[in-house]
Amino acid sequence: MKVRVRVVPEKHEVEVELTLEGLDPNLPLDLNVPTWVPGAYGFMQYGRDLFAFRARDAKTGASLRMERRGGSGFRLTAHPR
Fold first, then answer.
1. Measured between alpha carbons, how far is 31 from 48 in angstroms, rounded to an integer?
2. DSSP 3-state helix, strand, coil percentages of the chain (rounded to 5)?
3. What confidence category does residue 79 fall into, taking pLDDT thresholds of 50, 70 and 90?
4. Could you give the CA distance from residue 75 to residue 58 in angstroms, rounded to a whole number?
């Protein structure tokens, strides 16, 4: 797993790139944003602030289907968009 983070101050945004290798292309992958912070007692939906997300196969460059699952989750499948 490799993570690259870039702060874009003029947009008040953070770009995050996550690279995963060795996954079974026949199985969906669920990705979830935590809904809690240590020391806090409430649950937050930080995933709602994510936008312009996309996924691609690093070997072929093909776009992959990535859909929102609830307020803080995403499902990635190997099927092209």
1. 13
2. 10, 45, 50
3. low
4. 17
**Short-list 28, 35, 80, CA closest to 54:** 80
Question: From CA 19, how far away is CA 35, in angstroms rounded?
Answer: 22
Give the angle 14-34-41 at the CA atoms, nearest 5°.
115
Provide the residue type at 6 as one letter.
R
Tell me the pLDDT band of 80, cut-offs 50, 70 and 90. Answer: low
DSSP string, 6-70: EEEGGGTEEEEEEE--S--TTS-EEEE--S--TT--S---GGGG--S--EE-TTT--EEEEEEET
Specify whether the CB–CB gap between 64 and 78 falls below 8 A. Answer: yes
